Amino acid sequence: MWKTILRRLLIMIPEIIILSILVFILSKQLPGDPFTGSINPKASMGQIHHLMKINGLYDPWYQQYWNWVVHLFHGDLGNSYEYQEPVTAIIGSRAVNTFWLALLTMIMTYAIGLPMGLYAGRHEGKLQDALVRIYSYATMSIPFFVVLVIGGWIFGYDLNLFPTSGSVSPNATGFLPVLLSKFYHMILPATLGALFATSSITQYLRSGVIDAKNSNYVKTAQAKGVSMKNIYKHHIMRNAMLPIAAFAGYSITGLLGGSLFTEQIFSYPGMGLLFLNAVNFRDYTVMTALVLLYGFLSLLGTLLSDVALSVIDPRIRVE
């Protein structure tokens, strides 16, 4: 397994380099600049051109890229043009919010999806299975942003049960009140995200359980008198979990990347909302750093999926 992990890590290096070059080139092709409209509206074009020049934005892209790489190896991703702060500090503060929201969403997703998939597969063709499938098809057919808007309107504005913006109440002071306020702000977006994400997990697990319980080794275990509880625990679940493990890494790192829809609709200060603002304001330094981070998380998701698969099924380990 360790050879596989090391091999994947080495392959990630040229992939990250190619991605960084593409991102750097494409970001410079966006119309506009980071200064027009973000400084004194009475500023002359000469002042804007001066800012562009001292920030090196008139240099060839390869020279800008080389300067960026040199600073990167010194732990410096540059300063944000919009926030006038170091990019590492901005992303670090937003990444904490995204991490906790992603963690809560992931826990709720698997806490809901795994029992539902197992329950539906175990009662194949019965009313319980039909109800779970109706729920899955409904969540898959409705666009995610519609679920967020309707859920936010009903539970946030109409019933006024949960906040619909921010990550913490301005009145919260002290460690415990701030922690509870952060959790309270995450409940609604995390629940809506989990309810939407459970459909794929439920369907995959249901199909895996149905295939496994009709296999020969399960029939052999039944013939030997093994109880159905032990058969599901030691035989069916392990094999049915293979499709879930195949995309578990992608789902985890995808959540860490930040949901653009969730953070935009709920004005949640995470990496997704930061990325949208960076694109709107042509904040090249923040934009480049976030895209590279998303790319790294996607590659990391591939590695995590392979590791999860090899843990569940040792037969597929590559040495």
From TrEMBL:
SUPFAM superfamilies xref list: MetI-like (SSF161098)
Domain ABC transmembrane type-1: 95-305
Transmembrane segments: 9-27, 99-120, 132-155, 175-197, 240-266, 286-312
Keywords for the protein's UniProt record, in alphabetical order: Cell membrane, Membrane, Transmembrane, Transmembrane helix, Transport
Membrane topology: Multi-pass membrane protein
Subcellular location: Cell membrane
Predominant localisation class: membrane
Superkingdom of origin: Bacteria
A Pfam entry, by short name: BPD_transp_1
Alphabetical list of InterPro entries matching this protein: BPD_transp_1_N, MetI-like, MetI-like_sf
Family, similarity comment: Belongs to the binding-protein-dependent transport system permease family.
Protein name per its UniProtKB record: ABC transporter permease
Annotated source species: Apilactobacillus apisilvae
